[in-house]
């Protein structure tokens, strides 16, 4: 479908000149009746990329079952391969691609360049690994990757005595001059811009000669459950992380055990599909839902009822049922007042849901998502308001008021969460055209196919 000559909002996260013409985009399917969908999802990106790093640093080969195959995970594989790790794809039984055997290098070697794309896990988790390699490793990525915060990793590695050349930018591109060893020891960083700064250092810490005694200074660390995930994956491989006080993590030096791992489905990627039940009516079931997990997406089971949904967990199947219709025949979706400081990655999709709710919403605690794949607060406000919405930016969140939305272009900004949010809005609003649905390949290449399957 061709959309042309529209007036775009002034905001542009990339700082480029706005285009008033678009190429063909993806016309978001509109709900034509209640859903009754049952879906399985690929593995977690957050878990896959943590396990890839740990497997590369382990004391023997590891088997990763049902890993996520996406742009982010494949960039991680290629980055580790460049440092000497060996990978072998083997037939898997999960239905979403091969399993993966990871064999650590006898000695990590640099003298290479690593493409980070727009993957925060790659640009943050791999520099400490490169510091353990022998030789220089240059890191760079997509255009917007150069704007993503990196100070915690850059300052952290320098604080550990690693030679890192960034020409004073504190962002990509930079070169880590690895010597094959990192002394480790006490370190203080400001991780208030990203919990990944903490995870990046913890993942490699057991390989440092003195381990790591890491302290956070500054405001609270966002998305703390992601640090809990890192600690849990380390513990499973025999690396104990002590937390003697809030904002402090202590890792003793030692081996990282080889391990065969089953990767859980990505629960954050389940968000648009579960939200679809509220927007279209009916129900959506996700199979393989874990009873216990460190994934942030598990909070959907508690968050969606606040919008009016009914949620049930039976065995490994989580089902979301639509709210009862409102007295006026509306969808019955309630506005909410949410603090999503621990679950910022769910915010874009939940804001999309709030945009079609019947009462106002305020979603806060998410100022840090201005520094994700794009400035997500500004992008969400721009795109929803461009369709007739009423979204106001706050210091650390958004206010969303009910409005009659209309069709039109929806820009993804090379951000997978923005693309899936456009699909959510388009489920309720005819004529929403997402300019780059392909950007969902970052974490869920099968998204368009699975989204179409909702209605079948």
From TrEMBL:
Q: Name one GO molecular function term.
A: 3-phosphoshikimate 1-carboxyvinyltransferase activity
EC numbers on record: 2.5.1.19
Q: Which Pfam families match?
A: EPSP_synthase
| PROSITE patterns in the record | EPSP_SYNTHASE_1 (PS00104), EPSP_SYNTHASE_2 (PS00885)
Catalytic-site annotation from UniProt: 345 (proton acceptor)
Q: Does the keyword Amino-acid biosynthesis apply?
A: yes
Which residues are noted in the entry as 3-phosphoshikimate-binding? 45-46, 50, 194-196, 223, 345, 372
Q: What class of enzyme is it?
A: transferase
> Which keywords does UniProt give here?
Amino-acid biosynthesis, Aromatic amino acid biosynthesis, Cytoplasm, Transferase
Q: Where in the cell is it found?
A: Cytoplasm
| Subunit | Monomer.
Record family assignment: Belongs to the EPSP synthase family.
Q: What is this protein called?
A: 3-phosphoshikimate 1-carboxyvinyltransferase
Naturally occurring in which organism (per UniProt)? Agromyces sp. G08B096
Lineage of the native species?
Answer: Bacteria, Bacillati, Actinomycetota, Actinomycetes, Micrococcales
Q: Which gene encodes it?
A: aroA
């Amino acid at each position: 479908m061709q959309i042309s000559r529209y007036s775009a909002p002034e905001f542009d996260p990339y700082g480029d000149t706005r285009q008033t013409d678009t190429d063909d985009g993806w016309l978001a399917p509109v709900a034509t009746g209640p859903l009754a969908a049952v879906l399985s999802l690929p593995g977690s990106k957050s878990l896959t990329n943590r396990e890839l790093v740990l497997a590369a640093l382990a004391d023997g080969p590891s088997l990763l079952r049902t890993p996520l195959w996406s742009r982010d995970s494949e960039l991680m594989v290629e980055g580790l391969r460049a440092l000497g790790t060996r990978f072998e794809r083997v037939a898997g039984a999960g239905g979403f691609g091969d399993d993966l055997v990871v064999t650590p290098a006898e000695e990590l070697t640099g003298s290479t360049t690593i493409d980070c794309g727009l993957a925060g896990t790659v640009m943050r988790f791999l520099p400490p690994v490169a510091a353990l390699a022998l030789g220089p490793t240059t890191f760079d990525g997509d255009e917007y990757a150069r704007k993503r915060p990196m100070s915690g990793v850059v300052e952290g590695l320098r604080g550990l005595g690693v030679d890192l050349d960034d020409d004073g930018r504190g962002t990509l591109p930079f070169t880590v001059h690895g010597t094959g060893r990192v002394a480790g020891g006490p370190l203080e960083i400001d991780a208030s811009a990203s919990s990944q700064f903490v995870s990046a250092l913890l993942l490699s810490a057991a390989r440092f000669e003195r381990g790591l005694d890491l302290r956070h200074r500054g405001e609270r660390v966002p998305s703390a459950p992601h640090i809990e995930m890192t600690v849990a994956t380390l513990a499973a491989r025999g690396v104990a992380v002590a937390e003697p006080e809030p904002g402090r993590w202590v890792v003793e030096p030692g081996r990282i055990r080889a391990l065969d791992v089953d990767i859980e489905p990505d629960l954050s990627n389940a968000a648009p599909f579960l939200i679809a039940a509220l927007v279209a009516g009916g129900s959506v079931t996700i199979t393989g839902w874990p009873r216990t997990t460190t994934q942030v997406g598990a909070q959907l089971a508690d968050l969606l009822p606040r919008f009016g949904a009914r949620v049930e967990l039976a065995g490994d199947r989580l089902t979301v049922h639509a709210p009862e219709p409102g007295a006026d025949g509306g969808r019955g979706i309630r506005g909410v007042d949410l603090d999503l400081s621990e679950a910022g990655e769910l915010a874009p999709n939940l804001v999309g849901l709030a945009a079609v709710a019947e009462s106002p919403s305020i979603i806060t605690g998410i100022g840090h998502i201005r520094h994700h794949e794009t400035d997500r607060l500004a992008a969400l406000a721009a795109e929803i308001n461009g369709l007739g919405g009423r979204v106001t930016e706050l210091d650390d969140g958004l206010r969303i008021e009910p409005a009659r939305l209309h069709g039109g272009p929806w820009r993804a900004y090379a951000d997978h969460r923005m693309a899936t949010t456009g699909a959510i809005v388009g489920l309720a609003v005819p004529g929403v055209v997402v300019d780059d649905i392909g950007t969902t390949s970052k974490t869920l290449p099968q998204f368009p196919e699975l989204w179409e399957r909702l209605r079948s």
